Every structure is written in structure tokens, then in C-alpha cells.
Amino acid sequence: MEIPFAENYKIKMVEPIYRSTREQRVRWIAEANYNLFNLRSEQVFIDLLTDSGTGAMSDRQWAAIMTGDESYAGSSSYYHLKETIRSIFGFEYFLPTHQGRAAENVLFSALVKEGDLVPGNSHFDTTKGHIEYRKAKAIDCTVDEAFDTESKFPFKGNVDLAKLEEVLKLQPEKNIPAIIITITCNTSGGQPVSMDNMKAVKQLADKYGVPVIYDSARFAENAWFIQQKEEGFAGKTIREIVSEMFSYADAMTMSSKKDGAVNIGGFIAMKDVSWYEKASTFNIMYEGFVTYGGMAGRDMNALAVGLNEVTTNDFLDTRIKQVHYLGDQLIEYGIPVQHPIGGHAVFVDAKKFFPHVPKEEFVAQTLAIILYLEAGVRGVEVGTLLADRDPETRDNRYPKLEFLRLAIPRRTYTNNHMDVVAAGLKNIYDIRDEIRTGLRIRKEAPIMRHFTVQLDKV
Prior knowledge:
There is one protein chain. The chain is an alpha/beta fold. It folds into two domains: 22-51 and 313-457, Aspartate Aminotransferase, domain 1; 59-310, Type I PLP-dependent aspartate aminotransferase-like (Major domain) (Aspartate Aminotransferase, domain 2, 3-Layer(aba) Sandwich). It has helices at 22-31, 59-65, 76-89, 100-111, 125-133, 161-168, 195-208, 219-229, 238-247, 273-286, 297-310, 313-332, 350-353, 363-375, 384-387, 415-430; strands at 46-47, 93-97, 117-120, 137-140, 179-182, 212-215, 251-255, 266-270, 345-349, 377-378, 380-382, 403-407, 439-443, 454-457. The strands form five sheets. Strands 2-8-7-6-5 form a five-stranded mixed sheet, sandwiched between helices. A three-stranded antiparallel sheet has the order 9-12-11. It is globular and about 60 Å long.
């Protein structure tokens, strides 16, 4: 018989998790104002809120932590990380930050101003938040296939070149400081961007004199999909694919808490020394000196090791196949999800799951709350709450896609845990027609409300 697939690691240490009762969860979620971010970690059995900073580091990463250089200036850990970034991504200049949104804050402070247009493929919440906070506008140029959850199109993270060029033609009437490509594209379901699309975007950007920035939190997963699905790349290594991917970018931001396989950290890397010099001022203001920038030396050491580990098929095959293990179970149960399954999470189509819940009552958040009550599983809404309000009209924005995202931490859970998640969703799906009301907002912040919103049941 064929030898089955197995993880390429063995477990050296475990962390106990508490198995709560439904009665406890009913009380806890009410006390949390029906906001899953407000739950204490010990109130969650399986935590799929995010894959950001929640993974397990390797023994080699922990060993690297012990040799971290904590010098304020000129740390050897900084130069170790600098060389790792240069060798993998090809960028000569880099600034460490404490996480991805900090990298956005620093770089956008140097580049984005009021009235700017920033096109890209479905900007994620912090990216859009940083753009709109500066009174600029994020414009979604994602391909239409991304919004059809049943389509099997393999690269739903792609930028629609016609949509993009319509925006670029607005120059010089509107200033466009950069095009931002998110790899993989989280908002559209952890969907990859093809190499052909990256190359075409760069050619179009060069035609109009606009730089290209990659939001690179899950760059290695994107490279894996190119290797597996795009013609001409099956025989190439992940490192070779990553090298070509970033040859079509002028700069990158990175949340190292995803495909850096560390619990904290981020960075900006770029080709242009003038960008580096301008961003350095903001990095010193917001983060720290240019050779630590919000990161301890030990964390820079762990990140350098992590970047080398994740750019291998040993790591990526194990990581992505676990995501697909959960996705395939949900598909077998008839549960509507974004097809094909992405790299870091399974995205459940909440509109199709709960067709009777009005869109004004936050369908995906409603599903997330019921899943927590059913199985102690914490996911996250990627829908109307996250889409926030229009900054001018203050009306709710209703996105085309309303998802419950189940983001799977790296090297953290077993497939038995995935079985619990799948069973919990199936139980809810079996009684889906009984669910006809959702939630309403009691209190919200003016921007990025989903983190702190307070809700009531309708």
C-alpha cells in the first residue's frame, strides 16, 4: 500500500488546553460582548483566530534565541537577519519593526499622503486602515473569480490588469504612491498570486512609473502554490521561486509572525536607498534605532532561522496539507467554503451557510459565535465588521464576500483538532435553517472596529 503522508517533525513539548462546557462558553461570550477578541485564551479550546504569532518555533529557533545580541546599535543579530533577507528576497536595505502593521505605519508615513490612491488586490484590514487613516483611498483590483467561492480558479489573489490600468490612467490627476500586492491574498481566502500576474503587474507599473510593494506575510505559501499549480515551476525550489517573485517588487512589508514562523516581529525591505533613508526617520520615531527597530536581538536571530525553515517543501507541505485536511472535510460535509482551499486558513462562506440571517446582522460574526458555543473553537469574521464603515458616508460597507476564517497556526495542532472543528461546523450546518437572526452593534471604534466592537444578540 502507499505510504501515507505524515508531519515532518516530532513533538518535544506540549501545552495543556482546557476543555470547557457549553454553559461556561455561553456565559463567557456574553461577558465578552459577543466579540471573540475579548475572550481569554484559557476560555478557548482550539484557537483559530489567527495564524499570526501563534505557531510553534523549532528547536533551532529556540537555540538561536540564546545567542541573540541585545546591543542597542550594531547588533550582530541585525546583520545576521539583514544577510538572510538579502539572500532570500534580494533587497539590500531593510528596517526591523515589531510587527507587520508597524512596518506599514513606517513605510506609509514616508509614502502615502491625503488624496492618494493605493490600488491592489483586496487590502487587508491594517493595510486599508493605515491608508484611510492618512485620508488616502485603497482601491480593490482583484480578479472577479475571487468573488465566486465555487470557482476553482487557482490564483484568486491575482490583480485584474484592466482594473489596475483604469486606476493608473488617473495619473497625474491623482497621485498613486504604490501598488500593493498581498501574497497570499488573505481577504479573498488565503488565495495565491501567480508569477505571471506578478510579472505583468510590474510591467504595467513600470509603464506608468509606479512602484510595487508586496505585503509578504505569507510569501512562502504563495511560492508553494506557484510550484504546485503554475506551469513551468514544478521543477524549481521554493527559494528559486521566491527569488523570482521578489524580482518584480520594489519593496516589501512583512509580518514575520506568519511566514517568519516567530511569535513577534516584522520588517520593511527595499531596493531604493532614498526610500530607506526616508523610512529610517519614521522607524526611529515609531519603532527604535535602525538596527533593532522594535525587535530584540534574540527575536531577530529566531526570525533569520525561521525564514530559512519556511522556504522549504519540508515545512510547506506539512503546513498547507493540514489546512487542506480541514477544508476537504468541510467540503465533504457540504459546507460552503472558498474554493480552492488557501494556504493558511479555511474560509467558510457565511452568506451561503446562513442564508436567512440579514446582512445587517453580521452573518459571519454570528456563525463565529455559534461555532464557539458548539465546540469551543475561536475563528474570526472577515466580512462586514472587518470591512468597517465608509470614511465619508459612515455607512456600513457590505463586502462581496462574508467569511468565517479558520486560521491554522503553524506546527501547533494535530489533525484530531481539525476533526473537532469540522464536526462542530457540521452540527451547526445540520440546523442552519433554524438560525434567522444575528447581532447588532452596541459600541464601536471609528476605525478597525472589529478588534474592540461590542455587540448584542438580535
